[in-house]
Recover the amino acids of this structure.
């Protein structure tokens, strides 16, 4: 019996995935490479687990949520808005996409868990901390770093 072909991998190729990751993390080349490579592996694994997950989804929609999650794993968090701008989607697309990834493939994202709902909106945590909090803190620290470099 032959191995099932990953048709999604022909549409969202590792080359496209890496290119989009480098677009999103222009100044963090190593993080972009790691995120892009892991995203390609996860896409193939997810396809074999649930091929219908990818039906009627654009590649950049799939990648936006996946990149957002992988950014936390690779210590390169970014805001949903920045990622959305880099990939040409909306921040709502990023938010919806990452939530669908987490709910559909909990085994792949075992380091994330669903937190308490706030105003009817599900919140997700990475190692016990809110994703929004981590991304905002990271953005604040980056801004301070760039400001202090500019003052020198």
């Amino acid at each position: 019996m032959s191995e099932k072909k990953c048709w999604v991998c022909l549409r969202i190729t590792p080359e496209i995935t890496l290119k989009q990751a480098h677009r999103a993390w222009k100044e963090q080349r190593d993080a972009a490479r790691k995120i892009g490579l892991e995203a390609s592996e996860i896409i193939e694994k997810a396809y074999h687990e649930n091929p219908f997950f990818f039906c009627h989804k654009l590649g950049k929609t799939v990648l936006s949520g996946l990149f957002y999650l992988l950014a936390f794993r690779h210590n390169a968090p970014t805001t949903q808005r920045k990622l959305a701008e880099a990939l040409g989607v909306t921040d709502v697309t990023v938010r919806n996409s990452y939530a669908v990834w987490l709910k559909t493939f909990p085994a792949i994202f075992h380091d994330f868990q669903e937190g308490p709902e706030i105003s009817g909106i599900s919140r997700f945590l990475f190692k016990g901390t809110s994703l929004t909090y981590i991304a905002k803190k990271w953005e604040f620290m980056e801004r301070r770093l760039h400001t202090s470099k500019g003052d020198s």
Remarks:
- The two ends are 64 Å apart (CA to CA).
- Residues 8-151 form a domain with the Cyclin A; domain 1 fold (CATH 1.10.472.10).
